[in-house]
Amino acid sequence: MSAAMAEPQQQGSAETLEQLFKSEPDRLSRLSFDVAGIHFDWSKTHLDAGSIDSFVARAEDMGFAAARDALFAGDIVNPSEGRPATHVAERGSGSPQDVDLATARRQRMRALVDAIEAGAFGELTGILHIGIGGSVLGPALLLDALGRRTSNLKVRFLSNIDGAAFDDAVRPLDPATTLVVVASKTFSTLETLANLEAARGWLSGAGIADPDGRLIAVTAKPEAAVEQGIDESRILQFGEGVGGRYSLWSSVGLSAAIALGWDAFEALLEGAAEMDRHFRFADVRANAPLIAAFADRLYVERFGCQTRAVFAYDERLRLLPFYLQQLEMESNGKSVTNDGAAVAWPTAPVTWGGTGTDAQHAVFQLLHQGSITVPVEFVAVTEAEDDQDPEHHRLLLLNAFAQGAALMAGRVSDDPQRAYAGNRPSATILLERLDPRSLGALVAFYEQRTFANAVLLGINPFDQFGVELGKDIARKLSEGAGDAELDASTRALIHKAGI
Ligand code: F6P
Q1: pLDDT in the model for residue 6
Q2: CA of 193 to the centre of ligand 1 (A)
Q3: pLDDT (mean) for 131-148
Q4: Residues 6+ apart with CB under 8 A from 38
Q5: What is the pLDDT of residue 449?
Q6: In a mutational test of the pocket of ligand 1, which residue from 159, 184, 187, 189 has the highest number of ligand atoms less than 8 Å from its CB?
Q7: Is-catalytic flag, 471?
C-alpha cells in the first residue's frame, strides 16, 4: 500500500482481512453456511473469533433466544402496538390460533386464484396491482424475479400518487381484460385510495359496465375496504399482526400467486419456512441470519459505517435493494429501545445498492478508493435462466467474485492515484438457482437478519411511527389547514408552487 493511501476506518479489528485468513485458517468454513439451496459467505468480513464471542455474549445479554422463541410462538414482539408479528404464521410458525387463521385465509385466497384461473373474471390478460410500500414492493420483487418467462399475464404495479405513474402503469393494459388488485393493510393510505379512484375512472371511461366487479381488495381492515365501496365477496383479509413490509406471504401476494401459479406461491412459503427453521434451531455460531446481523453491528458500531450496499448480480433480482430498503430501514431506523430509552448503539445504516455489473461502472470507484468503508453484499445465482447465454452468465458471476477479491486484496502502487487500500469487506450470497423456493428462503433470511439486528439493539422492528408526521402535515395541508404552524421556508415553497 502506498504511504499516501489512507486506510478506511480500522477501529473494528486489529487484523486486516488478509491477515484474518492467515490467522484463522478455518474461517472460510466457519463463516460460510449452506441453507435452503443458498450459500452464504461471510468470510471476507472482519468478524473474527473474538468479535463473534463478544456478539454471542451480547445476544445472550439482550435475550436473543427468548425473543426468537417469542417471535415463533406468536407472542407479543411488537410491544408499542401490542401485537405479535404473524408473518411467520403465514409460513407455519406461531400460536396454533394464528397459524390456523393464516391457513384458513390462504385457503380462501387459493379458492379465488382457482376461480380466476377457471374464468370467474372472464378472459384475463393483465393485472393492475395498486398499493404502496410493503403492499407493493414484495409482489413486484416476486414477479420481476420469477415472472419474466413463466407468466402470460401483464402485471403492472401502481404505487405513486403521480399521474405519470398511473399513465405508465395502465398504458399496456386492456381495461376490458384487466383485474385490479388493491392491496393496503389499512385501506386508508392516501396514494392507494387516490389510485383506486383513478382505476375506477379508467375502467368506466373504457365503457366497462361494472368497474367495481373487476376490483379485488386485500387488506387487514375489510370494513375500511367496504367503506370504499368494495363488495365483501371480493375482499381478502390478512392479519393485523402481519406488518406491511412482511406481508408478501399473505394475500398481499395475490397478484404474484395469480401470475406465477399457486404451486409457485406455496413453494415460496416453503422456502421461507426452511429458513425460519434454520434461524430457529441452528447454533448461534452457524446461524446465517444471526452471523450476518453480527457483521452488520460490527460495521455500524465499531467501524462507524453509516451505509451498506447490496448489489444483485442478476437482473432478475434488480428490485432486491429497493425491497431491502423498506425492510431494513423502516424496521430498524429507530432511536429508542422498547422501553423508550435512547438506544446505546447506532441503529440501522442506510441500505442502498444496485445491479451488477452496471454498478461497477458507476459507484464502485468510491467502494474501492473512497475515504469511507461501505460493507458490500453481492447476491448472485449459479444457474442461468434456461435460454440465457452461458458465457454471459459466467462473466457476470466472475465479475461479482472479482469485485469481492479486489475489495479485499487492494493493489500496491507507487502512484497514490492508482493504489487500492484493500481490506474492504464484502459478503456473498450465492443461490444455486432462482426459483420460488430459494427466493422465499432469501427474503426470509433478510427478515430474520433484520429481526436479529433489532434484538441486539433492544428495539422494536415491527412498528413505523416515523412515517406518520410527514403524512399528518400533508393531510392537514391538503385539507387547507396547518399553514399557520409551518416554517417560513415551507410556506414559501407552497406559495411558489401556487398550490
Ligand atoms: O407509510 C409507511 C407505510 O405505512 C408502510 O409501513 C406500509 O407498507 C405502507 O405505508 C402502505 O400502507 P398500507 O398497506 O396500509 O396501504
Answers
A1: 40
A2: 12
A3: 96
A4: 429, 430, 431, 432, 438, 441, 442, 445
A5: 98
A6: 189
A7: yes
User: Ligand 1 centre from 39 Cα, in Å?
Assistant: 32
* pLDDT at position 4 over 70: no
Whether residue 15 lies in the annotated active site:
no
Predicted confidence (pLDDT) per residue in 28-68, tens digit: 999 999 999 999 999 999 999 999 999 999 999 999 999 99
3-class secondary-structure state, position 401: helix
Q: How far away, in angstroms, is 188 Cα from ligand 1 center?
A: 9
What's the CA-to-centroid distance between 304 and ligand 1, angstroms?
A: 30
Among the listed residues 123, 361, 391, 496, the single catalytic one is 361
The average confidence (pLDDT) of the chain is 95
- Residue 278 annotated among the catalytic residues of the structure: no
> Of 206, 178, 181, 213, which Cα lies nearest the Cα of 196?
181
Atom of ligand 1 nearest to the CA of 468: 1
Residues with CB under 6 A from ligand 1: 132-135, 184-186, 189, 192, 244-245, 330, 464, 467
Cα(252)–Cα(134) distance, integer angstroms:
9
Res. 3: pLDDT tops 60: no
pTM confidence score = 0.96
Q: What share of the chain is helix, strand, coil (3-state, %, to 5)?
A: 55, 15, 35
Catalytic residue among 328, 330, 377, 447: 330
Q: What is the rounded average pLDDT of the residues 358-383?
A: 98
Q: How far is CA 485 from CA 233, 267, 329, 477, in A?
A: 44, 52, 29, 10
- Residue-level pLDDT at 484: 84
Residue among 185, 249, 329 whose CB has most ligand 1 atoms within 8 A, to mutate = 185
The answer to whether residues 92 and 273 touch, using CB atoms and an 8 Å cutoff, is: yes
Minimum-distance ligand 1 atom for the alpha carbon of 467 = 1
Query: Which one from 22, 392, 471, 495 is the annotated catalytic residue?
Result: 471
User: 223-250: per-residue pLDDT in tens?
Assistant: 999 999 999 999 999 999 999 999 999 9
Report the atom number in ligand 1 closest to the C-alpha of 189. Answer: 16
Tens digit of pLDDT for each residue in 421-479?
999 999 999 999 999 999 999 999 999 999 999 999 999 999 999 999 999 999 999 99
What would the mean pLDDT of 375-391 be, rounded to a whole number? 93
DSSP letter, residue 418: G
- Type of residue at 397: L
Count how many Cα atoms sit within 13 Å of the Cα of residue 105 in the half-sphere of its side chain: 29
Q: What is the mean pLDDT of residues 411-419?
A: 98
